[in-house]
């Protein structure tokens, strides 16, 4: 389903799907990852069109607004 994603991005996508409206800080605290690892995974998901984010330049956070969870097609 998410074979093209890194391990971190795949894990984040599943967590974000189950917990919409997260911030980067929420994800860092849950996974215990370094903020730069979380940012890289978020950017990977965003670049692949799997999540939509909102960046607040005043507070320096990213809120994950929507998850576009990939659906496996039956053949």
Protein model, in words:
It is a single chain. The protein has 75 residues and is α+β, with helices and mostly antiparallel strands. The protein has helices spanning 7-18, 24-31, 35-47; strands at 51-56, 61-67. The chain has one domain (7-65): Arc Repressor Mutant, subunit A. Strands 1-2 form a two-stranded antiparallel ribbon. Strand 1 (51-56) and strand 2 form a beta hairpin. Helix 1 (7-18) crosses helix 3 (35-47) and helix 2 packs across helix 3. The longest helix is centred in the middle third of the chain and has 13 residues, at 35-47. The radius of gyration is 12 Å and the shape is globular. The relative contact order is 0.22.
SSE order and pairing:
Layout: H1 7-18, H2 24-31, H3 35-47, E1 51-56, E2 61-67
Antiparallel strand pairs: 1-2
β content, as a range?
Answer: 15-25%
- Order of neighbouring strands in the sheet with most strands: 1-2
In CATH, the homologous superfamily goes by the name: Winged helix-like DNA-binding domain superfamily/Winged helix DNA-binding domain
Mean pLDDT across all amino acids: 79
What CATH calls the topology is: Arc Repressor Mutant, subunit A
The total of helices stands at 3
Which structural category do the helix and sheet elements fall into?
alpha+beta
CATH architecture title:
Orthogonal Bundle
- Distance from N terminus to C terminus (CA atoms, Å) equals 14 Å
Radius of gyration: 12 Å
Order of helices and strands: HHHEE
What is the C-level CATH assignment?
A: Mainly Alpha
Ranges where pLDDT stays below 50 over 5 or more residues in a row are 71-75
What is the overall shape? Answer: globular
- Count of separate structural domains: 1
Helix amount: 40-55%
Major pleated sheet? 2 strands, antiparallel
Number of strands: 2
